[in-house]
Amino acid sequence: MRWLLPRNKLGYNRRSEAHIERPWDKYYKFDESTGQVYTERTTPIQSSDDSGWTRQNHAIARPTLNADTDIGDSDIGGAHSSDVDKSHVRNSDAGDSDANDAKGWERGRGGSNLGQYRRHPDNMKDSTVRNLKGTRSLQDVAIRCILENISDISPETLECLPIRIVERVWYAVDRRGSISFNTWSIFSKILRRDTPNPGLLSYRQTIQNPKSPLYIYANPLSSKTFDFITSLSITVTFPVPDLVKLSNITNLGILEIIKPSRSKPELSQVGDRLIRAWHQTASKDGVFPVLRILRLWNHEYVTGQSLIYLNSFPALTVYDVSGCGFGYDTIPQAQKLGWDLVVNENLLEGFEAACIFESPGRPNHQSRSSSNKRRKEQSGEAMKNLQTLTSRVQLSAVGKANTREHILRKIFSRVGELRKDADLVKAGVNTGDQTTVDNTLVNLVPMASLRLGQPYYSTPTSEALSFIRIKLPSEANAPIQGGHSEAALNKAPESTHMCNSTLKQQRQGVTRNKKRKLDDLINSFL
């Protein structure tokens, strides 16, 4: 009797049934011990501080390579770079050409788009890559694993890999449009010696609501080996002792401390005492070796007295003090110290005029307008010749040309062009060959820009004031590492008091002489 046989003898086994995947299986889970059905969700927890800001990914905007530029034989994947970059910049659909090129690459033949298959690990899904059949190679699987754990990557991990693999990983990371400061710094250090990549030359991040002390943000930005140049912008209030410790950032090239508005009742934390503290540290330890731009806005206690401390910063070229407590009596003192006064709301135009004419701060408006006109003509002719001076790839800047970060970066590069990056060379930085960014020669040293606080867009046009120094301070005027001696600095604030005391002594001496002469005259008649 067949029906008396057990079910396993009949060939029926409930466990052998194929599991049917249901839509709710991925959301609901079953607990066998309690018999309950539950779901699991991952909710991000907002941190109370910014101690891990270097590993937080954020969206970035990247400049693109010019399609008519030939980079050379340093492309990723072994293809000819001009064809690869054209296909990448124009976002042309690869389709069957990628499959044919990938097959040709496997057979050892060259193609016009060889790098497309090897360059795009993000397009790999299961065993199909753009109409390609078969399993993925071990190299593709390893790169996929690196991308999934890119936040935990270390320099030691990438240094042991071939440079082609590192370039492939960076291309995939940069293509995603989300990157952290830690990841960028590692790749920029390893790939710096190769052909410049737009994503490796600059990094920008904004933390609008800082929650941690200033050293949490400043310490990762410091690099004693000058792997990158730091640009720091602060629009929030930090204690003065924390601001003094900014001198520990050896690679600081641009420093911007802005008070949002002078109408607010709270007092500014920035003043002449802070700059004097920086001066004392620079005189002893030689800090700020590559600081070229110092911008202090809307600080009432920054006065003309701060000018005597600036010669301790050997590379300082632009001192923007718009909205600060400067008076017209500081002009003669600034000229004696080698600074030129510029009253122009457009800092870039004032700096370009100072590069051509040694005294841009003339009171005559007609001469200033004529100088600006001549400056534009000469700069236009000079910019035409810049194309022949470079043998590297041309990069286009991100966003509008009049953004504040772009203006400061352009001035920083212009200073390096005029001085041939003497400050970087003295610090032991290998600047390498130069490239062109928006018709401006720049070196290949990466720059990391960090803004702490809300962006400050308004400009105090009615109180625009800046000092520009094209020539480096001479050793005769700077006995202690480019700065004045402590005795001179201590006597400087008391100069007016000394003058007044000497005048009083002279007046008293004159009156005494008059009294003596009058007594002699009276005695002569007796």
From TrEMBL:
Annotated segments matching region Disordered: 64-128, 359-381
Biased composition regions of type Basic and acidic residues, renumbered to the chain: 82-93, 100-109, 119-128
Name of this protein: Cbs domain-containing protein
